[in-house]
C-alpha cells in the first residue's frame, strides 16, 4: 500500500481559517467548542437527525451555525468544511467517518473508532486510501494521571514492565450506560468495548505492547433485575442523572432492552509478554480508575485519577508501606476528563494547522477495539480464550502506531495536509 494522496480541504478556495462541523449534537458534542478556543477555527455546521438537537445546536454553537439532518445532506450541500467532530452513537461511527474521509474532511472521531474490528479496519483503510487526516478521541492519553504514570515508567523507576492491572469503578454506570442505546449489544457490542476501550488503550500505552490473546468473564448482575423501563429518546443525561440514586437497584426508567454486562473481567496477554487485567463494574458507589503497574525494579499505583490524587511508587523491598518510597501528586487544573478533552482537541487542531503528529494513534484506537471485541466474544462463550485480530502491516506502517512513543515528543507528520498547513500559523506552531 502506498501512502496515498495527501489530505485535502473540502474546498481549497475557502477563506483562511478552519471551518468545522459537528456531527451528533449529544452529550459529547461540546468538545468541539475547544476547537475554536485558539481563534483559528469556526464551527459552521451541526448535524443531527433529531429536530430538537438541531435547535439545541444553535444555542451551543451560535446562531450562525447551519444545521443538517444527516451527514450526507451536509456533504451534498456544497458547504466548505475542513474538519468534523463525529460524536454520534458508536454504531454510526464507521459509516459517517468513511464518508467524511472520502470527501476530504479531516475527522475527529469520538472513541471507540467503531463497534466491530471490520468497521474499524475499514475506517483506517479509507483514511489511508484518501490520505485524509483521522484522529480518534482517546482522550485518556491526555489525562495528567496517565502521562504521569507513563513518564515514571519511561524514566525506568520501576524497571521493565511485566504486569498491568486496572480496576474501573464505574459508579455512574446506571445513569450513563443503562438508560439509552449503550445498553444494547446491537448498538454498542458491549461495555468492555464502549467503556473499556479507554482503559485497554492506556494499558497498551503503559505496557508498551498490544493485546494478542484474551479471556474474559462477566454478567448482567444488577440492572437486568430492574423492571422499571422507559424509552428515553426524548430526554438527555441531565434529565435523569442524580448521585442520590442509591442503591443501584433503585434505578428507574432504564432502557427497554438491556443485554450488555454490568460486571466484566478480562485477562490479556500482550505481544511483548506483558500480562494485564481489566475489571469493570457499573454499580459501585464510587467512580474512578485504579492502575497498578509492576516492573522488574518496583511498582506504581494511582490513588485518585485527577488533580488532588497521587501516584505512589515502591522501589525497595519492604512489608506493608502505605506511602510507598515516593509519591507524585497528579497535576492538572481541572477534572481530568474535561482537561483531557481540551488537550486532545488542541492536539488534533495543531496537527491540522501545524502538520504535527498526535499523541493518539488511529492504529492504537483500532487495537483497543480488537482486544475488546475478542474479550466480549470470550465472555459470552464460556471464557474461552480468543486470539485478537491484528492490523495489517501496511496500515500499521502508514499510521506509524505511536503506542511506545513518548507523548512529549511531537514530530512532523508525513501525512499532514499541504493545504491545511498553508493556513496562517498560530504562535503555538512555533513554541
TrEMBL record:
<feature type="region of interest" description="Disordered">
    <location>
        <begin position="400"/>
        <end position="431"/>
    </location>
</feature>
<dbReference type="InterPro" id="IPR051317">
    <property type="entry name" value="Gfo/Idh/MocA_oxidoreduct"/>
</dbReference>
<feature type="domain" description="GFO/IDH/MocA-like oxidoreductase">
    <location>
        <begin position="149"/>
        <end position="301"/>
    </location>
</feature>
<dbReference type="GO" id="GO:0000166">
    <property type="term" value="F:nucleotide binding"/>
</dbReference>
<dbReference type="Pfam" id="PF22725">
    <property type="entry name" value="GFO_IDH_MocA_C3"/>
</dbReference>
<dbReference type="InterPro" id="IPR036291">
    <property type="entry name" value="NAD(P)-bd_dom_sf"/>
</dbReference>
<dbReference type="InterPro" id="IPR055170">
    <property type="entry name" value="GFO_IDH_MocA-like_dom"/>
</dbReference>
<keyword id="KW-0520">NAD</keyword>
<feature type="compositionally biased region" description="Basic and acidic residues">
    <location>
        <begin position="419"/>
        <end position="431"/>
    </location>
</feature>
<dbReference type="Pfam" id="PF01408">
    <property type="entry name" value="GFO_IDH_MocA"/>
</dbReference>
<protein>
    <submittedName>
        <fullName>Gfo/Idh/MocA family oxidoreductase</fullName>
    </submittedName>
</protein>
<feature type="domain" description="Gfo/Idh/MocA-like oxidoreductase N-terminal">
    <location>
        <begin position="18"/>
        <end position="138"/>
    </location>
</feature>
<dbReference type="InterPro" id="IPR000683">
    <property type="entry name" value="Gfo/Idh/MocA-like_OxRdtase_N"/>
</dbReference>
Amino acid at each position: 500500500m502506498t501512502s496515498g494522496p495527501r489530505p485535502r480541504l473540502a474546498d481549497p478556495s475557502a477563506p483562511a481559517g478552519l471551518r468545522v462541523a459537528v456531527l451528533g449534537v449529544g452529550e459529547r458534542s461540546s468538545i468541539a467548542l475547544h476547537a475554536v478556543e485558539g481563534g483559528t477555527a469556526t464551527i459552521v455546521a451541526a448535524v443531527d437527525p433529531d429536530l430538537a438537537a438541531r435547535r439545541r445546536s444553535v444555542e451551543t454553537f451560535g446562531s450562525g451555525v447551519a444545521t443538517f439532518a444527516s451527514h450526507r445532506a451536509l456533504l451534498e450541500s456544497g458547504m466548505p468544511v475542513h474538519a468534523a467532530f463525529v460524536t454520534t452513537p458508536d454504531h454510526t461511527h464507521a459509516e459517517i467517518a468513511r464518508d467524511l474521509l472520502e470527501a476530504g474532511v479531516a475527522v475527529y472521531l469520538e472513541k471507540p473508532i467503531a463497534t466491530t474490528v471490520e468497521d474499524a479496519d475499514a475506517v483506517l483503510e479509507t483514511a489511508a486510501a484518501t490520505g485524509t487526516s483521522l484522529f480518534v478521541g482517546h482522550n485518556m492519553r491526555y489525562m495528567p494521571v496517565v502521562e504521569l504514570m507513563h513518564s515514571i515508567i519511561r524514566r525506568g523507576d520501576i524497571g521493565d514492565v511485566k504486569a498491568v492491572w486496572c480496576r474501573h469503578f464505574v459508579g455512574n454506570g446506571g445513569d450513563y450506560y443503562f438508560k439509552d442505546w449503550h445498553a444494547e449489544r446491537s448498538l454498542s457490542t458491549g461495555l468492555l468495548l464502549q467503556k473499556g476501550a479507554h482503559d485497554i488503550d492506556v494499558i497498551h500505552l503503559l505496557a508498551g505492547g498490544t493485546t494478542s490473546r484474551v479471556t474474559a468473564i462477566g454478567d448482567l448482575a444488577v440492572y437486568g433485575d430492574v423492571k422499571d423501563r422507559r424509552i428515553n429518546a426524548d430526554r438527555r443525561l441531565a434529565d435523569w442523572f442524580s448521585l442520590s440514586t442509591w442503591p443501584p437497584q433503585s434505578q428507574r426508567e432504564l432502557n427497554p432492552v438491556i443485554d450488555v454486562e454490568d460486571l466484566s473481567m478480562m485477562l490479556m496477554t500482550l505481544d511483548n509478554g506483558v500480562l494485564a487485567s481489566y475489571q469493570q463494574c457499573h454499580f459501585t458507589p464510587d467512580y474512578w480508575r485504579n492502575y497498578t503497574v509492576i516492573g522488574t525494579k518496583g511498582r506504581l499505583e494511582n490513588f485518585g485519577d485527577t488533580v488532588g490524587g497521587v501516584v505512589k511508587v515502591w522501589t525497595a523491598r519492604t512489608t506493608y508501606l502505605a506511602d510507598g518510597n515516593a509519591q507524585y501528586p497528579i497535576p492538572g487544573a481541572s477534572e481530568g476528563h474535561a482537561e483531557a478533552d481540551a488537550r486532545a482537541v488542541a492536539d488534533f487542531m495543531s496537527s491540522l494547522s501545524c502538520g504535527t503528529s498526535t499523541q493518539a494513534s488511529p492504529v492504537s484506537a483500532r487495537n483497543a477495539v480488537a482486544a475488546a471485541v475478542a474479550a466480549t466474544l470470550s465472555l459470552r462463550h464460556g471464557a474461552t480464550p480468543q486470539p485478537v485480530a491484528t492490523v495489517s502491516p501496511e496500515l500499521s506502517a502508514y499510521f506509524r502506531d505511536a503506542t511506545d512513543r513518548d507523548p512529549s515528543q511531537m514530530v512532523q507528520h508525513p501525512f499532514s495536509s499541504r493545504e491545511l498547513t498553508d493556513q496562517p500559523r498560530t504562535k503555538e506552531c512555533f513554541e
